[in-house]
Amino acid sequence: MPRGDRMRAGLGRRAKWLVLASIALWPMSAHAWTRAYVIEWFEPAHYFDVDEGVTSAEAPGRDCPKGANPVPDWKTILVTSYRTRAEVERFLDPAFRNDPNRSLMTYAIRGPRKEDVYLNPEAVPDPKVYEVEGTVAYGFDLDENDKTGFRSPSGERGIDNAYYKASGCFVHWRGRPRDAAGFKYGNDGMRDGDFTIVMVLSGEQDPQDDDAALLGIYPARDPMVKDANGNIASEYSFRIDPVPDQQSVIPVRIKDGVVETREPFTVQMPDWNSFQRATLTLRKSRLRFELKPDGTLFGLLGGYRDVTEHYRAWSGNGVSRRGALVEVVGRINLPGWWYALRRRADGFPDPKTGRNTAISTTYHVSAIPAFVIEPDGARTVQAPTLFKKLAPAAAAGD
Amino acid sequence: VRGSTASRRSRALVAVTLWVASACSGSSADSAPGVVALRRVSASQYEQIVTDLFGPGIEITGRFEPDVRRDGLLALGSSALSVTASGFEQYYAIAASVADQALAEQRRTAVVPCQPADPKTADPACAAAFVEKYGRLLFRRPLARDEVEARVALAAEAAARSESFYEGLELALVSLMISSNYLFRVERSELDPSGGLRLDASTKAARLSSLLWNTTPDDALLQAAETGALHEDAELRRQVQRMLASPRLEAGLRAFFRDVLHFELLNEVTKDAQLYPKYSSVVARSAEEETLRTIVDHLLVREADYRELFTTRETYLDRTLAAAYGTPYLFDEQWSRHTFDEAEGRAGILSRIAFLALFSHPGDSSPTKRGVAILEMLKCEPTPEPPANVDFSIVNDVSNPSLPTRRARLLAHSTEESCSGCHLKSDPLGLALEHFDGMGQIRRTENGASIDVNVELGDRIYTGAAGLGAALHDDPSVTRCLVEQLYGYAAGRSADPSIESFIARLHDVLARNGHRVKALLEHLTTSPEFYRVPEPQQSAAERIAASAVRSRAPLGEL
């Protein structure tokens, strides 16, 4: 695009956002303001710590000195007391791919007593997958102890992102932001209409500086729409889907256009990688979102997530072949990942066993301006509130 | 037994050729003296007729012959069109597809007015009933005996070959739908008992149904024509009032404004995806619907002043369009009523995406295109083509810091003597819309410079779309243009000086009735002048001959 056109386009966009902002700021009182967004990208914040110019997700780096985890040796892994090596080799032989007796459940059923490892990963021994050995990670000092955890890219100490440590060396989840294959896959589903997550930010003072603002996060019923360049189009309208356990209203403060939690908070929202409308729960969570001049929002959302919830999001929870696909396509030994999650879990110890049940996790969130409409479709949301009572009776649990 | 599509088509072609040859050998009303005009059916009329006759849900696939715009209207161009050989093939394919769907098992009971004695053999009586019913509706007049007999014979022959009565009927229906009597609205004259010539009653009926409902006459209107009652003022008025009161009037109004506003061109509009990522064919379709809905709501539902179309902030939005406008969409129904905020500066249908995107460049707005469109479409003031050697370098140089806005560049360009005449006339109208970019999104600056939308129209200064809308609202040439276009659209001839007094009277009627378009329609369609036979400029026979030479289509059919 010629320089003049770029300049024109940029100026036009800025002017447009100013107009948008003036329209979106629905006056509740003299200083009330509202901004609404649709999340256009959501992924675990993994720090791809490699030399400049390195692009391969398999290459060694400061994060994973041995490189990414190798492809699981299925010829060995799938052999059990009830499945011979010859049977495994036939199962893996592409020539028999269309054999009607061939089932992807072969990947799942590999415990010594035919346990489904996607439900019971500890039925098989720990294969000891590679974990992140680097020292830099995105995230927050969730335990308020700067002696534990990583250092942030900007030098902040005590960054707790043990999920990254456990997961960051799988090739499926490794790469620069928006470039890891597994995260692309999950986001493609969201961007193609599988599910939608929206946010509403409102306050009473100033959108750039407000120490008593609220942030609402909700699932939405309407799919995102792509623009002529394949990006998610801004300013579409989305109706909130009042799923009871996937809504959150979070007290936040805004300073110089940066949104942060006032206090650690429990966030419940749709799982970004959802295939069965699962819930993502983050306890003691924190967030830091930057409100960009062009009207978009970008930042981090972190907290402690139950390791079982993490595992089931990828293993399929025994209700689909998802776990097998993740293992084969993603080159991930899921029980191996489970052991890593358990090993690195760093929060919410079980009162009886003392074993940590949750793992510090951080996500990158990118959102663009949108209009968020109340569940009945009648009006825009002016201030975040919980819409749980509007959920269908069968779904409303509270 | 239903054969393959290819073999059926082959059989059909042979049969149709035989039928056409036999039809050509006898006398035909097509070539009878008294034909004063042939007006090709538009794509939208074709679709409407199929829906009206056979019910909704029939898919029409294929491309219609391209239309030609004359004196600002496709409807005027339709009087000068023929059918090319390839176009005839297309019409054949479309007709075959429609016949196949209309007589499919699940629909045939409702469509065919009788039960064949044996569905595996010909039934001439039932076939004749079918041909008479649909032939009358498609040809807009009763069929002559030989026209019916030829098609009944065709149906019988096809039924015998295919062992299916309904396949025979399909072929008879195809032969009706590829006839020039259907594809062209044949306007005929007859002797007026009071002297001179007048349009015959069937032609009157077809003019009415085409203008008011964008379709073929219904049974009641055909009956009025067949009995001659339509020539009586009272019956004509009764029929007009019936049609004006019908919800089908919406189809007629939509077709007229779609033609006036050049909306068929929206299918061809492309935009630079880098500059206008939100623009797409979906947005274009929604934008067209937005403007047409606004017009229908304003003129028919609310029966409001036509001139307020240029000032209204009321509109209809779907989810796609709401995003393009950057405004919330409330999900009460697919098309949600919306009022633009005054501060946005959108006033009137010229400030909506359909007009703004259509009359712009792929990567920029165009005050000149917008201005010329307003002059030609709304004020009936044609603009000459620019000189072949015009130098656009100043206009296109967006990097010149001394000319940051389109307005500044245009003003510099229009100082050239060869350009100034037209630009001084058209540009002010378009410059008032410069707060909307090439796809109609709001902008207030260009290259960092504030965009000035103050324009001088006549001896007054107007600001932005609201100012332009107010100027058009008060401009009598706008309402006069509506009258001229409506007459031209309906009568198939431009409003020339010979009907000046009629046009002036219609304009007066419009003003005296609060600029309500329904009143104008009523007066137009109940006035004798509307049905007056014009002095021939080229005889119908000459046009038919010329068309046949161009198209190599069967002479009897054209």
Description:
The complex is a heterodimer of chains A (398) and B (558). By secondary structure, chain A is an alpha+beta fold. Chain A contains nine helices and 14 strands. An eight-stranded antiparallel β-barrel of chain A has the order 1-4-5-7-8-10-11-13. Chain A has a two-stranded antiparallel sheet with strand order 2-3. The longest helix of chain A has 22 residues, at 3-24. The relative contact order of chain A is 0.18. Residues 1-15, 18-30 and 394-398 of chain A have low confidence and may be disordered. Chain B starts with a helix and ends in a 7-residue tail after the last helix. Chain B is mainly alpha-helical and 558 residues long. A three-stranded antiparallel beta sheet of chain B has the order 1-2-3. A two-stranded antiparallel sheet of chain B has the order 4-5. In chain B, strand 2 (184-191) and strand 3 form a beta hairpin. Chain B is built from 25 helices and nine strands. At the A-B interface, helix 1 of A face helix 15 and strand 6 of B.
Range of strand content of chain B: 5-15%
Largest interface: A-B, 34 and 37 residues
Average pLDDT rating of chain A: 90
**Quaternary arrangement of the chains shown?**
heterodimer
Features:
heterodimer; A: 398 residues; alpha+beta; 8-stranded antiparallel beta barrel; 9 helices; 14 strands; 21% helix; disordered N terminus; B: 558 residues; mainly alpha; 3-stranded antiparallel beta sheet; two-stranded antiparallel ribbon; 25 helices; globular; disordered C terminus
